[in-house]
Amino acid sequence: MTTAREIMTEGADCIGEDESVLEAARKMTDLGVGALPICGNDDRLKGVLTDRDIVVKVLGQGKDPASCKAGELAQGEAVTIGADDDAEEILRTMREHKVRRLPVIDGHRLVGMVAQADVARALPDPAVGDLLQALSSD
After folding, report:
1. Within a 10 A sphere around the Cβ of 125, how many other Cβ atoms?
2. What is the pLDDT of residue 135?
């Protein structure tokens, strides 16, 4: 069975919890991504910051992205997947938590990201269709 390690995008860049949301937006632009893991000063994953979070939770609420810290937007424990977890676990986790991206963890270390597009490329059409339907509902 296909594992997260086999389909992930390796070497996910983080935004530090003390870095500004403006810096996160610049990093997303430079990398051409819509989400960044938020890494803590303790070298642990704190959450994932998305471009939508920046628009809704910062700009939409009139906050200054230059003074708002990425860590302020981390919401509880991040939803992750283990590097050796199989495709069924990836699908189950994405469906259950209604997320399109999962940080991939090996032990406590962030090793990559699995996105909906990675799943679509790697898995059979029926499994991908089920995932898309689950993420699109509600």
Report:
1. 8
2. 53
d(CA 28, CA 94): 22
Please report how the helices 87-97 and 125-136 are oriented relative to each other, as an axis angle in degrees rounded to 10. 20
Domain count, the chain: 1
Q: Which domain holds residue 74?
A: 4-136
* SS3 (DSSP) at 72: helix
- 52: its two tokens: 């939508």
The per-residue pLDDT for range 6-52, each reduced to its tens digit, is: 999 887 789 999 999 999 999 999 998 888 999 988 878 888 899 99
Please, what sign has the CA dihedral across residues 33, 37, 87, 131?
negative
Q: Which helix (H) or strand (E) holds 90?
A: helix 87-97
Residue type, 71: G
Q: What is the CATH number of the domain that holds 93?
A: 3.10.580.10
